Amino acid sequence: MKKVLLCGKLFTAENDDVLENMAVVVEDSRIVSVCSQNDVNTDNAKVIDLNDKFVMPGLIDGHLHTTSNGGTKEEPGYRTTADLTINALLNAQTDLLAGFTTIRDEGSENFEDVALKKAINAGRVDGPRMITSGKVITATGGHADSRFPLDVHPDVSYGAFVCDSPDDCRKAVRQIFKYGADQVKVMGTGGVMSLGDEPGAPEFTEEEFRAIFEISNTRGRLSSVHAHGAEGMKRAMRAGVTTIEHGMLMDDEAIRMMADTGTYLIPTIIAAKAIVDNGVESGIHPENVAKAARCIANHYTNLKKCLEAGVKIAFGTDAGTPGNYHGMQTREFQLMKEAGLPPVYILHSATSRNAEMIRMIDEIGTITPGKYADITAFDGDPLEDFETMNHVKFVMKDGKVYKS
Ligand SMILES: [Zn+2]
Fold first, then answer.
1. How far does residue 308's CA lie from ligand 1's centre (Å)?
2. Which of 12, 58, 76, 360 sees the fewest Cβ atoms within 10 Å?
């Protein structure tokens, strides 16, 4: 069915312009034309009046975890794959209703994200488009290695493939693709929300990274490295990774390398800030709060250097980490602004730049004839005040209206 969206203000994300009194014509799942309201033909069309709104492409969250809810206290009891799958479904639907028509899941425990993506794509449940990682790769004792104790079952980890050699890494990445994930995610340095590891320290040798990214690159797949420390970032880049997550302890050489290689950075400011803001009083372990504070200390300064150096800064939130709830990750827009990034640059981060990052720019990321009709609308002008991004008024994905 033909739909005509009357747009008071329209940011197509094809460039920096905001157009006025435009119309976007949608047929079935695709955008078929973008024109002035004076020239649009509304015969036999359902007209959707967004004349008092700021209309833009559907948002893309480049880094989140659908299986994690964002609570600050550990959930009671064991979490099975069944529990996590239900989390994933509900969180992904919450993301969609917050305006995120595409999400990139940066690691579930046991391929729950892949199962969810299949169900969404088959039309069995509602949800956003998904890029999935399945299970992540880490090293023994590294970020996301939650093993049973040595005296119980030293070889079984829940939530990650634990790899300690290039051969282990090759086997894990092949399994990740075998079980249907779109990309490979590697825990390349220690992290914030794990105990006993060091965010500044690499967890893999360059040889191990190379074993992983050789396979993902030859298969034409994305690869993603969780890396705070500069050395881990550099090893991963030399080994051919496509995106760096967090990067909170980067140095000037790492910034130059990202700019030179075109490696995307997903800064996830909100993840560290929510842990620091909620603090130990909320139930987060003191070691985790201390690490978050250390990681965020120079992040804003570094992001400004990245912008000046021409690093491609993408939009991602790590929604699902403590105090960082699905549906509220739009607060990252304001934080990126506080870090000194220009508002229009930030809108591109969450639309066109993220679509390029996930290699879907021919299908989504801008409001352009031929692309999927993934469209959102907000009150006021987000370029003036990002507060409005926290209250999306209209969400369309694939030409279907999910919120109006
Ligand atoms: Zn994450």
1. 26
2. 76
